[in-house]
Amino acid sequence: MAPDAFEAALRAIGDERYHIHHPFHHLLHDGKLCKAQVQAWALNRYYYQASIPAKDASLLARLPTTDLRREWRRRLEDHDGDGSAPGGVERWLALTDGLGLDRDYVVSLRGLLPGTRFAVDAYVRFVRERSVLEAIASSLTEMFSTNIIRLRVAGMLQNYDFVSEATLAYFKPRLTQAPQDVAFALDYVKRHADTAEKQEACLDALRFKCDLLWAQLDALHLAYVEPGLIPPGAFVPA
Amino acid sequence: MAPDAFEAALRAIGDERYHIHHPFHHLLHDGKLCKAQVQAWALNRYYYQASIPAKDASLLARLPTTDLRREWRRRLEDHDGDGSAPGGVERWLALTDGLGLDRDYVVSLRGLLPGTRFAVDAYVRFVRERSVLEAIASSLTEMFSTNIIRLRVAGMLQNYDFVSEATLAYFKPRLTQAPQDVAFALDYVKRHADTAEKQEACLDALRFKCDLLWAQLDALHLAYVEPGLIPPGAFVPA
């Protein structure tokens, strides 16, 4: 495929598989969830947020050039902060705080759905074990994220009296960080996927990433929406 | 804990978390599923069955003595066969054949639920990465399996005209293999978990294993029972 056709094939995966199409997200944005269900979402997604710098650090450790490492170090700073400005993980905890979840409980991961843990761990291991090209390609779900973030923030602010601009502080910086991440990663992937086999590996990596985001919402939906089947040991709303 | 109290603590985990308590299993045994739902179960569980010898081989490669390796080599033979008698993986394919699933499709894993893949892969990696003691402890769900197998075989034969003794041939040898596996593994774990910390690690390993069996049924339940939310790309019954 020519680079533009390859980019179109990558974008088509989002149309088919990105979790913006999952019913849990519609419920979340449309104000159809109760506070306990939003708590369950924030609690579980904390593990995803907290694992992002771990996967980025494992990729950083394998990148061969100064330019690549500098770009990926910026991602780590976005998520871990710099000691003065809070990073994404800290801002996510502002959300779980604002929802009334005990921070020690959140960070302990005791209430996590096993489905969340297995999906997130699969991502960290994928990035650790696959080629640098596939690892970078798997980050390209950010191509689709500004749209979902805009919908989510607007919908949640409008529909829930238990969230505020302050508790949703995680999302605003992502609207500028994600396009910057994508500009670099998409350019890298288009330049380095120079055979049909490498292009297919990148498409598979992006499908895999969509699947694991989707699976996280599947686990939440089953446990906390319908049929409400909470696995033994997982968070039980008060 | 004294060895007997430790064994009781291990068994108590089964009472709380073993997937015999999952509603999907009740539906399966009680004849409440249609053929397509049983197909989905057999198709997904194939990946678990096919991964068992991979996890056993990775443990075998780390075992330090002839006795231990011989015991674990027997498990590999149970699952992979010896070239004349079929092993467990082959017998599982007799089930998917009998249910009318195309064997190439099953083996390709194309229709797998992402939740199945992530849970099974988590098991293989756990066994590869954790201590030998934790890896062996994670096998102890077999303590609870003869009961579920008896219920499953009796219930399925009675309730479904599309299964037979021949298509359920996987299960019968497990009724003798599993107790043999357990006798060895439980004795090993009781002798080697000689500190509170090691005992707790074994209990955690068994909880982890129960969670991943449970998560596989969660994924099946959400996709094929209620609310019937099949993830993009997964098996869609004809």
From TrEMBL, chains A, B:
Reaction catalysed by this enzyme: 6-(2-amino-2-carboxyethyl)-7,8-dioxo-1,2,3,4,7,8-hexahydroquinoline-2,4-dicarboxylate + 3 O2 = pyrroloquinoline quinone + 2 H2O2 + 2 H2O + H(+)
EC number: 1.3.3.11
All copies of domain Thiaminase-2/PQQC, residue ranges: 8-218
Pathway assigned to this chain's UniProt record: Cofactor biosynthesis; pyrroloquinoline quinone biosynthesis
Keyword annotations of the record: Oxidoreductase, PQQ biosynthesis
Family: Belongs to the PqqC family.
InterPro entries per UniProt: Haem_Oase-like_multi-hlx, PqqC, PqqC-like, Thiaminase-2/PQQC
Protein name from the UniProt record: Pyrroloquinoline-quinone synthase
Keyword Oxidoreductase: yes
Alphabetical list of SUPFAM superfamilies matching this protein: Heme oxygenase-like
GN (gene name): pqqC
GO BP annotations, alphabetical order: pyrroloquinoline quinone biosynthetic process
Function: Ring cyclization and eight-electron oxidation of 3a-(2-amino-2-carboxyethyl)-4,5-dioxo-4,5,6,7,8,9-hexahydroquinoline-7,9-dicarboxylic-acid to PQQ.
Native source organism of the sequence: Roseococcus suduntuyensis
GO molecular function: pyrroloquinoline-quinone synthase activity
Catalytic class of the enzyme: oxidoreductase
